[in-house]
Amino acid sequence: MSSGEQDRTAPTGHGGAIDHGFYESIKASRRKVMTGLTLGVLLGALDQTVVGTSMPKVVADLGGFEHFAWVFSAYVLAVTVVVPIAGKMSDLYGRRPVFLLAMLVFLGGSMLCGLSQDMTQLILFRAVQGIGGGMLFPVAAATIADLYAPSERGRLQGSLGAVFGLASIIGPFLGGWIVDYVHVGDIASWRWVFYVNLPMGAIAVVAVAAYFPRVVLTARPSIDYLGAGLMSTALVSLVMVTIWGGETYPWGSAQILGLVAMSAGAFVAFVLVERRSSEPLVPLSLFRDRVFALSAVCMALTAFSLFSVIGFLPAYLQGVVGMTATYSGAVLFPLMLTTIIGSALAGVLVNRSGYKVFIVGGALITVTGLLMLSILGAHPTIWKAVAIMVYLGLGFGFTMPSFIIAVQNAIDKSKMGAATSTLLLTRTLGVTVGTTVLGTLLNGRLATEMGAHLDRPVLDGLLALPGIDGHVQRIPSLLLSKGFVDGSPATVVDSIKVAFSDSLSWLFMLSMALSVLVLVIALFIEDRKLKSAEEYHNSGGNSGGNGGGNGGPNEGPGGQRAAPSPVPMVPSPPGDARGPAVSTSEKAISPPAKALRSP
């Protein structure tokens, strides 16, 4: 490394104060970096929603209908495994190389998906795509924490979170539009669902490569390979339980119980390894900070509750209300739209009021919204369902970005990537586990309600119908058959509707109870002052708690890590086309009070 790179630190005023003129000069670069980050995150989020509407054409072209679900499961599995690893790697190697690697892997996976010649190849390449996509958001969220002080980053985190809501709205329509209207040469239209990522991804790569601070490593980071392996084993086993349980294999089968045992054993081993690791993948000291620990629990439970709405409300509207699949899905749009609005409002106002008011207020809205949803009954009007979706969306929009803001305000900057990715992992697990748990509970409740509302001979007759094959949880699907509804006694049809409605009401009440727990826990989250730019850039980033950094193996007094040293971000001199450079050498940087930690 050249001496010029070693000496390039932020200009400071007297007493270590920030040279605000210097920060003004790099604001344009921050905006360009954010453009690249946002584009990358949008692509990763879209790929979770855009593929669904193209799958009929994919199956018609490639075959392999029996493996249909694995096109989605492979992506989710890869995302779940890579999220905690990506954040830690960005702490060790810097955000820029990890984000660029994520983009290249994602775009490479997209290209390979488009070139797939059979379903097996598509599933494999979707996993590759998921590895890249799973790395994008935790690194992007941690980068915001590097570039902006807590008092500045609220609107940015809110905007980044709103990207997921936007992807949920436009993704299915975009996928359908591409399949129906994009025809170039002899290339099958569904392949453009993946190829369309390439030009947008190229813009993101150029923006990040040109303006993202570089990291110059002077020492080889210590990587927790054993911890990463154990964490991956635990997560893969858990996700496979949610995929196979009750479908491919019975819940009590040796396969499912073996996966549960493997996941639990790997998790216990992971905790033991992390306690002794010199550079843990997930620093356990993070959980000593009350803000982090309580936010992680609340994030998981909120994601669990959100899925109960997104996953089961369309089935309720189709089966009970009688809406078409298109319109039942459209009812979710107000939820996604107001989630975006809520995220934006929380981001803009959080610096004035603090994050706790949005966490507590959002949890209260979620509780009351789920209560209203649970009492809609078997004959609701559409406008009531839409109004509840609008109301719930604000609640979810207020809470999700506020948890990230709270955690990043509490944690030491040297652990920002690990803390952010661990928090996002709890959200992913909340959704993943919620899928299985809620579905299993609903099936059990359906058996009870069907038995209570239908006479035994009628129930036995329904169970004997083709397609039902003795599975009571399949009976509500009869409500989607016009022939069955028109040809069956009205009392039977109405009894099925009431049984299905009561089962879903019970499920929504269960989600409401979890939201009440979130509300209670949120009351104990400390509302720490958001640091200003001057406070943040002249400190280790700790907000006055233990910062998740007290007592770790590599930490010094006050929770500051002894090694590796915090990475300062400094701009390149004019004409340096390689992008801004940073050094991790302790000799190459100024003391923490004078070094520029982030633009």
Number of helices: 22
Cα shape = globular
Biggest sheet statistics: none
Write down the Rg: 25 Å
SS content category: mainly alpha
What is the distance, rounded to the nearest whole angstrom, between the alpha carbons of the first and last residues?
22 Å
Please identify the oligomeric state: single chain
* Mean pLDDT level: 78
How many strand segments?
A: 0
Percent of residues in helical segments? 55-70%
Low-confidence stretches at least 5 residues in length (pLDDT < 50)? 1-25, 540-599
Our estimate of the beta-strand percent is under 5%
| SSE topology string | HHHHHHHHHHHHHHHHHHHHHH
Structure explained in plain terms:
This protein has 22 helices and no strands. It is mainly alpha-helical and 599 residues long. The relative contact order is 0.14. It is globular, with a radius of gyration of 25 Å. 68% of the residues lie in helices and 0% in strands.
Output the keywords.
599 residues; 22 helices; disordered N terminus; mainly alpha; disordered C terminus
In short:
The chain is 68% helix and 0% strand. It is an all-alpha fold. It is globular, with a radius of gyration of 25 Å.
What secondary-structure arrangement, pairings included, does this model have?
Blueprint: H1 3-7, H2 20-25, H3 27-46, H4 55-62, H5 70-93, H6 95-115, H7 119-147, H8 150-181, H9 192-195, H10 197-211, H11 225-244, H12 254-276, H13 290-321, H14 325-330, H15 332-353, H16 356-374, H17 382-410, H18 416-453, H19 456-463, H20 482-487, H21 490-522, H22 533-537
